[in-house]
Structures are given as C-alpha cells and as structure tokens.
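Researcher: Sequence of HlyC/CorC family transporter follows. Predict its structure.
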Amino acid sequence: MLTAALGLFAVILLTAATGYFVAQEFAFVAVDRARLSAAADNGDPAARRALRVVGRLSFMLSGAQLGITMTTLVVGFIAKPALAGLIEPLLPPAGVPSGAVDAVALAAGFVLATLIQMLLGELFPKNLALARAEGLARALAGSTLAYLTVAGPLIRLFDRAAEKLLRAVGVEPVEELHSGATLEELGDIIDRSAGAGHLPADLSRLLDRALSFGDRTADEVMVPRPQVRSLASDATVAELITLIRENGNSNYPVYGQDMDDVIGVVGAREAAAERLAPSTPVSAIARPALMIPGSQPLYGVIDRMREAGEEFACVVDEYGGLAGILTFEDVAEELVGEITDENDAREEAPVGSADGSWLLDAGLRVDEIELTTGLALPEGDSYDTVGGLVMAELRRLPRPGDRLVVPLGEDPAEPDGHAEIEVVSVARRVARHVRVRALTTPDAVSTAASDGATGDAVGPAERENVQVPAQGRADDASPPSAVAGDDEGAMAASGEGPWTR
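Model: Prediction complete. Tokens:
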C-alpha cells in the first residue's frame, strides 16, 4: 500500500510537471509582446525575462515539447500499476470476480491516469495560460530560462536532428516564428473585429482604407483627362477668373501647343495677385507644374507634394502625355472617404431598387462599388472603373441596353456568384450609368449570359422605367446623345481642353 501511495504521489508530481510545460508553451505563444515591451521599458524585471524567452520562442517550444514528452512517458509508466494497486482492494467487495480483479484494476487505472493527465496535465494549464497569458509568462519566465539553460544541449540535439529530417524531405526549417502580421492577416483581423462588434463601423472602414492605401497608384485616384478643365497659354486672367467662378476649382493646368504640352499650373493664388491686369496671359503668371508618373504609389505622391510645397499635380502616362490631374484632396479621400465642400457637385450616390439591383455611376472604381453595394466585381489590370470593366468584357464600345454577366469574387475560376451589368446610358462613347444586380440561381446566370451573348437589349417600355439620376456632375451640360459627339476640337479652340461630365 505504501508503494501504491508513493506511486500516486509520483503521478501527481509528474502531472504537475506536465502542466508546467503545457502552461509554458501556451503562455509565451499567446502573450502580447507589445505589453511586455512596455512593461520592460518601465523597469519590470519579470517582463524583461519574459521578453528574453519570447525572443527564443522556437527554442522554448522545443524545450516545452521535450518536457511534456518525458513527463507523460514517465506518468504512463508509473500511473497504471500505481493506480491499479489502489483500486484493486476495492473491487472484490464490489462483487468483481477474483479472476477479473487484475484486469479490471489495470483498465480502471489506465482510465483514471488518462483522465488525470488530460484534465490536470493538459487542458487545465492550457486554458489557464490562454486566459492569463501575460501574468503566467511573467511568473514562469525565470524558471523557463533556468530550464532552457540546463536542458539546452539536449534540446539543441533534438532540434538539429529534426532539422536534418526536414531538409531530407525538401522542407527548409524556420528558426523562429514571425511575430508580425501580413496585410491580408490584418484585414482579416479588422473584419472579424468589426463583425464581432469590437470596432465601430466607421473605424473599420478607415482601417480597411489605410491597408489598401499602399497599393493605390496615382492613375487609379486621379481625375482622368476627359474630366480635366484647362487653359491655353494665351488665355487671360479674366478667363481664369471666370473659369474659377463657374467651375469652383482652385487650380488648372496651362498647356502650350496641345493638352499634352503642359507648361504650368495657374489658379486662385495667382489670380489674387495685386496689380494684375485682366488681359495678362496666364502663361506669364503660371507656376511650374508638379509632374508625377501614373505608376507612382500614393505614399510617394504625398512625399513629392510635400517636397514641392504643392497640392496639385499633373499625372503623366507612359507616352509622356497628360493622363489626368491629382490633388491632395483626392489622396486624402482614399483614406477618409469622400470629402465634400461647397465647390463640389452633388455626387450621384448608388441607387438601390426593390429587386436588389443598383443604379451606378460607371465612373466609380470597382473597389468603390464593393464598399457601397457589397458586390465584388472582378478587377483587372486594363481598367479601374465599372465602365472600363464593361468595355473590357464587351471588347467594343458600349451601347444602351448592353448586358453582360461577370463573376463575383477575387478568383474568376472559383467565383462566389455572378452579377449582371446592364448599360443604362452612354456619354462620350463610354458607359455613363449601369445597373448591376446579383444573379442568385444558375438558371438566372445562364439566361442572363444567353441574353448578353445575343446582344439582347431592354425594350422601349423597360427603358421608359429606367430611373437615371437627374442631377449629374456640374460640368455635364449636355444629354448623352449630345456628349457622344466629337466636340473636343471646339473645346480646345475655346481654351478649355477636352473634358466631359
């Protein structure tokens, strides 16, 4: 009986040792390194020791695994006979036949040892470490460092053997776990936090925009050339003032021979100069234009603007021509969303219908459509906007009534669904308004695809029911039929340059 009691004591002791190594393993993996660093900077010696362990996380995990394995093996060797010895005297009074006592006692000892090992040696310390990771990491740091020092040679021996086995099968071992997170992982964290209610919706959108900000380039955010108003070099200050009054914008490119020959920028600050005759040509007061390539990332654009002390830039395409213009407000809107002031025309907000469709401005970027409607239209290298997507899919200029079916989601090979895009109106040969709806059934997808393939257009009765927003952009003075005409020459002659909408 004494031997059985000593065996039970050994089982309890070894189970506690297993729990120690399990708690060690989970506590240092789950602990917040930033909080430990802050505590260490404030002079907390336990936090400094914990940071030393976290800095050798892979080595510590190997040591914890070694400790867990050794203590578990020893418990398995001792527990069954020790516990069986305690259980065996209780079985005959319970009516167990004498011939079955040994087998039943051994089986009961095995079950009891497994329960003790799982509950007290594995699950309890694991859950405790996850719930109190920082406190437990501080408490275990000193003993963990001592253990790693004593068992270090044996841990390294097993580590090197495991690394050789990995390399033998073509896998390169990783020495330490990375403590940071990729942009995709951060995005997932933000989405999960917002879904669980831990982040306000506005803050979640701001963080999502901040993560995608680094991927944006100037040509994705710029005001494209067809929407740019400009002045010829021989235009006068009086014309500049009139343009500012009518259009509301503060700065305009000044061009020489043609729109691609940008010679400077002029705006309200130059027009406000004293003793300036209304007949003065704008070329005499224009300041140098900040020129940036369309491929410039937005953070690079901010640096260029800051260095030049400029908030207005001309975007140049790969052929050296003017691709569009970019203001600091355009860049800021990529972070905080639309910024509206008294000079902005009222934007056409997406209009949702009872049937689940959306009436959209085709000039919106594909990612902006997803933020508004939740429909993840396919992105492509050859276009940025929904109008560009329509032309890329049709492979011709669009006409009102054109319909096409596109996959939803990031991977067209494995789409999350399909959507139908219908061209509602056209301006200057490109789609102006489109109607987008998700297709929810395979039959709807096949029917819509068949209609699109045969060029099926909406009928006159349907077209009368299309609700196109009455308020367009401020500079869209013509109906689609008029805008579709080639009036670039007339605008160039007037000194305004080509623009639309």
